[in-house]
Design a protein that fits this description.
By secondary structure, this protein is α/β, with parallel strands linked by helices. The protein is 54% helix and 15% strand. The chain folds into three domains: 2-220, Rhopdopsin 7-helix transmembrane proteins (Up-down Bundle), CATH 1.20.1070; 223-381, 2-Layer Sandwich (Alpha-Beta Plaits); 398-563 and 605-645, Alpha-Beta Barrel (TIM Barrel), CATH 3.20.20. An eight-stranded mixed beta barrel has the order 10-11-13-14-15-16-17-18, surrounded by six helices. Strands 4-5-3-8-9 form a five-stranded mixed sheet, with helices on both faces. The protein has a two-stranded antiparallel ribbon with strand order 1-2.
């Protein structure tokens, strides 16, 4: 029954063997940190084995007076060799997990290895110096005078590991961080317990349990591997970029965007498509320049190429070699089933963090290039080719900052009523001026806000500023009947839009009739049932709508029958074309007369001259907007303009 005292050591070895068996049967992508993890498991397993065997030999020796003394000595010697390196190995593992040890130069690893080398040298010298352990004259185990050095060095590695986790906490998820910290806490408690109660051999067992937790939370990559390609997926791509950016690494991301070949890929049977994508993944994974391969989005691969510390030029040359391999391979056909497919991807190169400094920006980068189809072969986009992406990311950040501080300005462009010869309404327009980027045109930041989903919050801010303006200045007492507020299609997709707007109107005591919502023809022409349902629901609540930019893109008079409108705004491009082309003038005239016969107001945009004004009024247009009357004005200037307006003859 003497083995019962080594139950925990036997259990530790069994746990680690089970973990290794799991890794063996699991589909895994080999990485340096995975190899270190396996070495740790082997270390704990062997430590448990030699400890147990040492116990057998020791028990036999002391009970009978006979036994294999050299074998007992060897077991203890090997235990100190194995276990003395454990803290170093786990420190290396932590440095790999949070990324600070990725692609470092040789000196980094030499410095990191010096303390453990001292430990191992002390152990190796123990047969001659008794520095770490020895057996006394009665053949009992005794601790050597320098054993404390091993514990001190192990403590140093633990402190370094904990510091790196806390210093670069953003580089790993909370689950990973807590699991690794658990290892240190549990191990420390077990060491203290075993020191206070020498017969309680729980140190190896606690380390094995911690390694099991690491396996389940850190090493288990089932949720981060794409089942079709066998490479990492979108979640893993985001985590890896977050890890590398969080620890200040410099690297290159190559996006291989196959969406430019979608016309070919879409005709493939599912099995043939998967076989083709899998073949592409295997090709990328086989290239030595590719440190990690991902399949984050449909038809898009991403490859991370790390820059070796102190070897920037060599790393850049490796990326160029890889790009050459890619272009050469994609100039050839790909076979799938009985078909031969020619792929012509966009290959996008991004320098991280110089060009793209956020995981979101990197993901947007690899989606770029779809407009450059490259039918003559693969197209490589880099540097200045991607400057618009950097600008887009900067604009998005400016929008986010402006939303956080509500630092948007709403300006108002007056709209003149021909029948009353007065300003009866205005269009609210949003402006953005960023401290770093300066003035940003609405034509630039509105599309970015729409694509990023920020338009919903931006629209809320504009709507609230308009309502606050009416509440504070009582615009209706100046003769204004309502204000036109633009509404994005993306806002219409929000289920809370009606509730949100009604709450703002109520808070500022603004009647619902004072707001007219402008939507574009793209929303009007949409067959999206949800959008049309939102519009009708808001109309039932009392909101009125104008149709903006009529005559462009989705122009169709049938669109006027889908939704009940108050105003139809004819795009300025039609007016300007009508000055030089008879066909455009006929279209303008017919549109105005048809709309007026339907009982709707015609708002003509872009009127800049008296000749244009007279022509539109003669054709039946009753509301006029444009620089002839005024450019968009700030709140104070708008109020002054309306108060001072004396009629069109005074303009």
């Amino acid at each position: 029954m003497y083995l019962s005292k080594y139950f925990f050591d036997i259990a530790a070895s069994c746990i680690c063997l089970t973990c290794m068996l799991f890794l063996l049967i699991q589909r895994r992508i080999p990485r340096a940190r995975n190899r270190i993890y396996v070495i740790i498991l082997i270390n704990i397993t062997l430590s448990g084995v030699v400890t147990t065997l040492g116990g057998v030999f020791e028990n036999s020796f002391h009970e009978t007076g006979y036994g294999n003394y050299p074998a007992l000595y060897l077991c203890l010697f090997l235990y100190f060799i194995f276990h003395g390196a454990l803290a170093f190995l786990f420190c290396c593992y932590v440095f790999m997990v949070n990324g600070i040890a990725e692609r470092r130069n040789r000196m980094f690893y030499i410095i990191l290895s010096i303390p453990v080398a001292i430990t191992e040298l002390l152990v190796l010298s123990s047969p001659f110096t008794s520095a770490i352990f020895y057996f006394d004259q009665n053949s009992f185990f005794r601790r050597g005078p320098l054993e404390w050095v091993i514990y001190l060095i192990s403590l140093g590695y633990m402190v370094a590991s904990v510091y790196s986790l806390l210093r670069y906490h953003k580089a790993v998820t909370a689950g990973v961080r807590h699991t690794v910290l658990l290892f240190f806490v549990v191990t420390l408690i077990a060491v203290l317990a075993q020191f206070l109660v020498p017969g309680l051999k729980v140190e190896l067992f606690s380390e094995a349990l911690s390694m099991l937790a690491v396996l389940l939370i850190v090493e288990n990559e089932d949720q981060r591997v794409d089942p079709v390609t066998g490479v990492y997926n979108r979640e893993a791509f985001a985590l890896e970029n977050n890890r590398l950016l969080g620890t200040g690494h410099v690297y290159t991301v190559l996006g291989i965007n196959l969406n430019t070949s979608d016309s070919y890929l879409s005709v493939l049977a599912p099995a043939d498509y998967e076989a083709l994508i899998r073949e592409a993944a295997e090709f990328l994974s086989a290239q030595k320049e590719a440190d990690l391969v991902f399949y984050p989005l449909k038809n898009i691969f991403a490859v991370i190429c790390m820059e070796l510390e102190g070897h920037a030029k060599e790393s850049e040359e490796a990326v160029l070699r890889f790009e050459k391999k890619l272009t050469e391979r994609f100039r050839q056909d790909w076979s799938t089933g009985k078909l031969r497919i020619h792929l012509h991807p966009s290959i996008i190169e991004g320098k991280i963090p110089d060009e793209f400094a956020t995981p979101q920006g990197i993901l947007k980068m690899i989606r770029a290039g779809e407009e450059k189809t490259g039918f003559g072969g693969p197209v490589v986009l880099k540097g200045k080719d991607l400057s618009y992406l950097s600008r887009r990311e900067q604009v998005e950040e400016a929008i986010k900052k402006a939303i956080a501080t509500e630092n948007f300005e709403v300006v108002y462009q007056p709209i003149w009523d021909a029948a009353q010869d007065k300003i009866v309404t205005a269009e609210a327009l949003v402006r953005l001026r960023d401290p770093a980027l300066g003035y940003i045109s609405p034509d630039e930041f509105i599309p970015v806000a729409e694509k990023s989903g920020l338009i919903v919050e931006l629209g809320r801010i504009v709507f609230e500023k308009v309502c606050r303006f009416q509440h504070e200045k009582q615009l209706d007492k100046l003769g204004l009947e309502y204000v036109e507020v633009n509404l994005s299609t993306y806002q219409l997709a929000s289920e809370r839009l009606e509730e949100q707007f009604l709450e703002i109107l109520d808070r500022y005591e603004v009647p619902i009739s004072f707001i007219n919502l402008e939507i574009t023809e793209s929303a009007s022409a949409s067959d999206n049932i949800a959008l049309l349902r939102t519009i009708r629901k808001m109309q039932e609540a009392g909101f009125r709508f104008s149709l903006d930019d009529f005559g462009t893109g989705y122009s169709n008079l049938s669109n006027l029958l889908k939704i009940e409108y108050k105003n139809i705004k004819i795009d300025k491009s039609i007016l300007w074309s009508a000055e030089n082309r008879d066909s455009a003038r006929i279209i303008l005239e017919d549109n105005i007369r048809t709309i007026r016969k339907l009982g709707l107001n015609v708002v003509q945009e872009g009127v800049e001259t008296r000749a244009q004004l007279d022509e539109i009024v003669d054709l039946g247009g009753n509301l006029i907007q444009g620089f002839f009357f005024s450019k968009p004005l700030s709140e104070a200037d708008f109020i002054q303009y309306v108060k001072g307006f004396k009629g069109k003859e005074e303009v």
